[in-house]
Amino acid sequence: MRYETIQHLRDTEFKRLTGVQREAFAQMLKVVEKNLRDFGRPTKLSRADQLLLTLMYWREYRTEFHIAQSYGVSEATVCRTIQKVENALVRSGKFRLPGKKALQASDTVFEVVLVDVSEQPIERPKKGKNGITAAKRSAIPKKHR
To answer: Which of 22-36, 51-65, 66-80, 106-120 shows the lowest per-residue confidence on average (mean pLDDT)?
Structure first.
C-alpha cells in the first residue's frame, strides 16, 4: 500500500490504518525528510512510503518479508528503511515514549500469582523383553523363569 492510495481517506480512517493522526504523520514526515540524507542510487520508495512502511511494521506486526512483498523491495531494504526511520524519529526527540518511571507511576495495584507448571520426568520401568527390573527378578522363583 502506497501513501498515494491512502491520502484520500478520512482522518478517522487514516488513524485506524496507520495508528497516528494525519497531523502527527505530517510532523513525522518532516522529520524523516529533514534527517535522512539522499545519496547513491535513488530509492524505490518515497519518504512518505518509507514512513508508512515503518508504521505498518509497528502497527500490524507484519514480517519484513510480507512488507517487502507488498512494496516490491527486498527484505534487507525493509530492514534498513525501518532502522533509518526509527533512528531519525528518535534523534528528533519529538516522538519519544515516556520513560520507564513515568509508565510505572500508577494508582493501579497489581496482585501477582505465580504457578509452577513445569513438567518433571517420572522414572518408570522400561517395557519390552528386558523390562523386568532386577528387584522383580529376585522375587520370582527360579523354577518359573
So the answer is: 106-120
DSSP state of 33: H
CA dihedral 126, 127, 132, 133 (to 10 degrees): 10
How many residues are listed for the chain in this entry?
A: 145
Q: How far apart are CA 69 and CA 142, in angstroms?
A: 74
Whether 6 contacts 17, CB under 8 Å: yes
**What is the rounded distance in angstroms from the CA atom of residue 66 to the CA atom of residue 138?**
66
Closest CA to 71 of 86, 81, 59: 81
Q: Which helix (H) or strand (E) holds 144?
A: none
pTM summary value? 0.64
Which residue type does 87 have? N
